[in-house]
Write a structure and sequence with these properties.
single chain, 248 residues, mainly alpha, 10 helices, 0% strand, elongated
């Protein structure tokens, strides 16, 4: 890391700081304090607020674990926050995401996710890459989730963008540069040296990526297949009714 971690156990200077450390330990139980905690505790009040906020995001929403971890893992990939990925990929798997789904989150495939999960990935991509979310992407998300859940998904994506930027800026956990970089994430920076880290493109207007186009095409294909099945069912019902009328 670019700065030293505080000692573990952290040295405190007041009963207030003792209480802060206790609250953070309580949220991490039964595990130890994380490297992230030992970085944040250089500023105990910031660490305390961070702990309360992220605790609410992690355990205080109505989102199921898979949706929450899709948001977090996708942000980690887009921002190359591999410490964040290392912490949350196991939680995503524990929530039921397959190897294929995890590859999709890393930009290496297109399968393993449901339509509502794809909508979450597209929304996460738009928020993280461009900040502004195009109406079609928002409308698709809203078709799957309640207003409360839309707020919670938005807060989760926003919160873990904050987390990832802190992690990468300070290289918490010494994970920077340890995973494959998504080619779609790297922008061409004039006069950048080979040591300059890639940065997120930030266009003036929102752009729909090839990734989102492919997901939308897959979504349309599934809808068409569903409509085809419904048409077949209606045809069979019609034939059945015709047979009954003839026999009558």
């Amino acid at each position: 890391m670019r700065i030293p971690y505080v000692s573990d156990p952290p040295e405190t200077r007041s009963p207030q700081e003792d209480a802060i450390v206790s609250r953070i330990r309580a949220r991490r139980e039964p595990g130890p304090l994380l490297e992230l905690d030992l970085a944040l505790l250089h500023s105990p009040l910031v660490a305390d607020g961070w702990n309360a906020f992220l605790g609410s995001i992690r355990t205080g929403t109505t989102l199921n674990a898979a949706i929450r971890e899709i948001c977090i893992c996708r942000v980690a990939v887009l921002n190359q926050a591999w410490y964040e990925w290392a912490q949350h990929a196991p939680l995503a798997r524990a929530a039921g995401l397959s190897d294929e789904a995890m590859d999709t989150l890393k930009g290496k495939g297109w399968g393993g996710l449901t339509l509502e999960q794809i909508a979450v990935v597209d929304y996460t991509d738009a928020m993280t890459r461009h900040v502004a979310v195009p109406h079609p992407i928002f409308d698709k998300l809203q078709s799957f989730f309640t207003v409360q859940q839309v707020v919670e998904i938005t807060a989760t994506v926003a919160a873990y963008n904050c987390v990832s930027r802190f992690l990468v800026a300070l290289d918490v956990g010494e994970k920077n540069g340890t995973e494959q970089v998504l080619s779609s994430k790297i922008s061409n920076v004039p006069n950048a040296s080979s040591s300059t880290p890639p940065v997120l493109p930030h266009p003036a207007t929102s752009v729909v990526s090839k990734e989102q186009v492919k997901r939308t095409e897959a979504y349309i294909t599934q809808v068409e297949e569903g409509l085809s099945g419904i048409k077949g069912m209606l045809a069979r019902l019609k034939d059945s009714n015709t047979d009954e009328n003839i026999s009558a």
